[in-house]
Design brief:
By secondary structure, the protein is α+β, with helices and mostly antiparallel strands. The protein has a single domain, classed as Aminopeptidase (3-Layer(aba) Sandwich). The protein is 29% helix and 30% strand. The protein has helices spanning 12-21, 36-43, 92-106, 121-129, and strands at 2-6, 48-55, 58-70, 73-83, 109-114. The protein has a five-stranded mixed β-sheet, sandwiched between helices. The longest helix has 15 residues, at 92-106.
Length: 144
């Protein structure tokens, strides 16, 4: 049975499952995978909502919202939305995103933003189905 839950504890097994999912999001093999310290910091941060789909104890999907307090509102930024290829098409992505939105709202966020690669057509259809609206903007990146 597959469950959807907010992850609140960091374990080496969870990290291994997450690292098995991350290459599906990466554009290059040179991008680093997560460390135990990364996972500890994510699940231990009250401003981060980390939702996973699990079959038994194995993490098969995930999404993260990073909450930022702005002047007059709290906003969430969604990152690392991924489902294991063998679990796609079962509605799990929708359930994970709905749980992420619910947890973010409960934490005080009034809106969520996300970006999606132009080639992730199925994911974009899901986001629109969930109520996300495409914004006309440019994304800039500064590597430090």
């Amino acid at each position: 049975m597959i469950t959807i839950e907010r992850m609140r504890a960091s374990t080496p097994t969870a990290l291994a499952d997450i690292n098995a999912l991350l290459p599906q999001l990466r554009r290059t093999a040179s991008e680093p995978l997560g460390s135990q310290a990364d996972l500890d910091a994510i699940v231990g941060n009250e401003h981060v909502i980390f939702v996973v789909a699990k079959e038994g104890e194995k993490i098969v999907g995930m999404a993260t919202a990073y909450l930022a307090q702005k002047f007059g509102k709290k906003t969430g930024f969604v990152e690392d939305v991924v489902m294991d290829g063998g679990y796609r098409g079962q509605g799990l992505g929708q359930k994970v995103m709905e749980a992420l939105a619910m947890e973010s709202k409960a934490a005080g966020a009034s809106q969520l933003y996300l970006t999606s690669g132009h080639d992730r057509v199925a994911a974009q259809k899901l986001y629109e189905k969930l109520g996300f609206v495409r914004k006309d903007t440019n994304v800039f990146k500064l590597s430090l």
